[in-house]
Specification:
single chain; alpha/beta; TIM Barrel; six-stranded mixed β-sheet; three-stranded parallel β-sheet; 7 helices; 9 strands; globular; binds zinc ion
Amino acid sequence: MARRIGLNFHGIGSPARDLEEGEAPYWLSEAQFTEILDRVAAAHDPQAFVLTFDDGNLSDYDIALPALVERGLSARFFVLTGRLDQPGSLGRDHISALLDAGMRVGSHGIAHVGWTGLDRDALNRELGQSRSVLQDICGLPITEVGIPFGLYNARVLRALRRNGYTVAFSSDTGQMNNKSFLRARTSLRGDMNSAQFDDILASRMPPAKQLRRMLGMTKKRLLPLT
Ligand SMILES: [Zn+2]
């Protein structure tokens, strides 16, 4: 079965660094996070869920890792290499510990910028340099990215392939095709209630929203045409 539900997390608990503008709603309380993990672990098929963490917050290590291990779940962590070893963010040793616990690590770029707005050189640097730094830390090929802010277009997707990536996780919501290059996820937010978490875990989406999503993804994959 190639259909999965991608759940994307950011920070959990209290941030230990200054947040970016608009970032706060993407932080979950520890109670919200464990509620979602408990539902995944209790699901008929926990493998139907693909769990990812963007931004490389220290809560990935402090809170998410033990909670995942306790429930026998695994996840992917997309790290910003520009924040490595900064207060409130993962350091090199944390990344090694995530790998040792059976988690996967990928790139979220260097500086947390939207990739669609970068020129060719800057885009190659974001994708290539972050990849090589992570490969040095992990001693493994890094082939997956979490796309910052879900911003991509045809040029970004081409640059990802050119820089050696084989999988790109977006934020397009809805179901994920676990065999395709581009894999949709839904970001969980702290201002969502339990009923909204239920809809996301059940991958329930009104038909009008499904259509908008399909058209939006097609447009982003094809544009710009030049
Ligand atoms: Zn991010």
